[in-house]
Design goal:
This protein has 367 residues and is of the alpha/beta class. It has a single domain, classed as Metal-dependent hydrolases (TIM Barrel, Alpha-Beta Barrel). The chain is built from 13 helices and 13 strands. The strands form 3 sheets. It has an 8-stranded parallel β-sheet. Helix 6 links the parallel strand 5 (116-121) and strand 6. Helix 5 (104-113) runs parallel beside helix 6 (141-150). 48% of the residues are buried. It binds N-carbamoyl-L-aspartate and zinc ion. Residues 30, 32, 56, 268, 270 line the site of zinc ion. Zinc ion (ZN) binds at residues 30, 32, 56, 268, 270.
Length: 367
Amino acid sequence: MNATAASPASTATAGKTVDRIELTRPDDWHLHLRDGDYLPAVLPFTVRQFARAIVMPNLRPPVTTTAMAIAYRERILAALPEGTEADSDFQPLMTLYLTDRTTAAEIEAAVASGIVKAVKYYPAGATTNSDSGVTHVDRARPALEAMQRLGLPLLVHGEVTDQSVDLFDRELAFIERTLAPLVRDMPGLRVVMEHITTRDAVAFVESCGPNVAATLTPHHLLMNRNAIFVGGIRPHYYCLPVLKREVHRQALMDAAASGNPKFFLGTDSAPHARHTKETDCGCAGCFNAHAALELYAEAFDRAGALDRFEAFASFHGPDFYRLPRNTGKVVLVRERWDAPDEYPYGADTLVPLRAGEPLQWRLAQAG
Ligand code: NCD
Ligand code: ZN
């Protein structure tokens, strides 16, 4: 598509309200699709908006080998809405789950497979299904060295698990203790800091070379930590890394709207059954795939930055991953609709972000 002609920038600068946005078909560079009966319940939401998605490996058991990634990919393709791969051109981009035992040979096999596009680093215990994660970065050295050599990106959940560090400071502590030294020691390693939540992470990513980038979720662009406590405790706004202060949200939005190619779309849509969120020890994760592009459009609209939306959603991600940009288009229109209270989720139900509340944009057309 002709990006210039389709960009809403011209209308925005003419002082008119933009009511229609046409974008090159975007990709989701951080997504949880789950497995079993949950997978077909959430996959259609992503397929209708995105051409590709980086699929997180934190299943039980985690996707630690290329063989497991190939099998998981087959299950995703089999769950595509019309039933067969040929019915949809959606491409799941697979990831491996890094552990203390991941070998260089496994990384070589991953690259050779052509279907594994990145490796996910969960500090052990940092988030949902992360107990098999890395206990100390040094233990993952052989794998990281192979990734540096082969150009396979490392996707980082950037939080320390040290319980003595304040929950809201764990991203900064991870940057200081682990990520900055790692990037310094391995200057050829390609790194995406996933779902960043602080101005410190923005500053860190900006300070690095072009080998370090970051994804941003719609919920971290739209909300600050007050959202978790409006009139009572709101488990559906609890995710990790947790929402932060307004000053951080503003820094994230500024980064997303800056046009800097280091920052791109990754929803971190993380479905959990209603009863596992609404309980005395609720799971972390927000399900936003039902309205991901609509939520991002709202964030960019609020920031007066709709002219920067397409590059963030559709260009920076494939450019970083060295994949071609998509050729299809999607259209969003300014139109209010209410998100449903819940969706079916296998034998359970799923409460989406904004449940029962209005959204300002609607995905009108995809192709
Ligand atoms: C994710 C999940 O539920 O798998 N949860 C979350 O709060 N974001 C895991 C993750 O990405 O941290
Ligand atoms: Zn995630």
